[in-house]
Amino acid sequence: MPPLPRVLCSSDVAPAQAATATTPAPGLGLLGCGTVGSGVARRLLASHPGLIRGIAVRDPSKPRDVDWDDFSDDAFDVVDDPSVRVVVECIGGLGLARELILRAIARGKDVVTANKDLIATEGPWLAAFAARTGASLRYEAAVGGAIPIVRALGGALAGEDVLEIGGVLNGTTNFILDAMEMGADYGEALEEAQRLGFAESDPRSDVDGHDAAHKLAILAGLAFRRPSVSRFVGRRGIAGISAADVQTGAQRGLRLKLLAVARRAGDEVEAGVTPAYVPEDHPFARARGAENVVRVLGRGCGPLVFSGAGAGGDATASSVVADVLAALESRERVPAHAGEDLVVRSLRAPVLVRYADGRVTMGDAVALDALVTETVKASVDPSVASIIPVWRDAA
Ligand code: HSE
């Protein structure tokens, strides 16, 4: 039998062979070397020696667990380095990080970022800008830590008619609620989440639901293929949740989770972030510690559940590195959004009302926006201890 033809794949062509004397191998500039950035640096220094051309940090003299002896304090210099073709932004926030990303895109460089705040507020126009300059913008690490949900929506699920997407999108709050279920104190659990590198530099972004709202807006834009930004996503965080709320659920076979869900409602989308009781056997209840659970409900594919490490340096670095490899090979671009902006209205759910005297009643479905108002009213009504939605899957 003749030998089978050998299929040529990209790994057969070493970068050094593919490059000519006038086209040096593309290099990478890393901006930020904190929890995520240092994880990215360690991995790439080990797997791709010579790829990283510059690492910019705020304070080069600070000791770091990264084998690099030439940290720069000028991130613009790293972006402008002609040998840098891929810029990896691990600074976070909307100030300097935004300026650097804009500069990289303007120069036609590929950008990889874990910056959910930026993608959730300006992602649609940044993607359009990148399309004009020939740059690419990849942000797998912005949602769900190590869970490959961005590329799943842009690739394997690109033809799916998504009806609903969401679940547990914030690791820090899940870690806190999980710890409270086991009897820990809210403040101690938050401190532990910070120590483990799960929380944002300002943990109010986690506990007040901003982080989950950002991630939900990004997912909704990809799932419903329309420009989407987080300022329209109603939100309520976990700061007011007490041990009694967690225990009240546990006694009824319900687990308290910070849910972030968007679902189709006619031509609009119903979306919101709220603490909610979830039946113990529901996929959303599966998230333990800092894990995330994302469920995609599609007309064709039915329910698909993605779960795993949702926060932490190594988990997030894994997604960043995957995007870097995709950028180097110019494959798997995140699709640009098209059409009218997504119209978002408030998520609705029935509520469980717990009274100060221990009584518990079920209330009708209310909109999350109204619920926030009701909760504020309840806080001045001494007879009501808490009002928390109970998650019901759409029939
Ligand atoms: N602070 C975020 C979380 C980190 O707890 O989920 C991952 O985005």
Q: What do you see in this structure?
A:
There is one protein chain. This protein has 395 residues and is of the alpha/beta class. The chain is 34% helix and 24% strand. The chain has 13 helices and 15 strands. Strands 6, 7, 8, 9, 10, 11 and 12 form a seven-stranded mixed beta sheet that branches. A five-stranded parallel beta sheet has the order 2-1-3-4-5, sandwiched between helices. The N terminus is likely disordered. The structure holds L-homoserine. The site of L-homoserine has 11 residues, from helix 7.
User: From N to C, what is the helix and strand string?
Assistant: HEHEHEHEHEHEHHHHEHEEEEHEEEHE
Strand content: 15-25%
Largest sheet: 7 strands, mixed
Structural class: alpha/beta
Question: Which stretches of 5+ consecutive residues score pLDDT under 50?
Answer: 1-21
**What is the β-strand count?**
15
**Averaging pLDDT over every residue, what do you get?**
90
Distance N terminus to C terminus? 57 Å
User: What characteristic shape results from the CA principal axes?
Assistant: globular
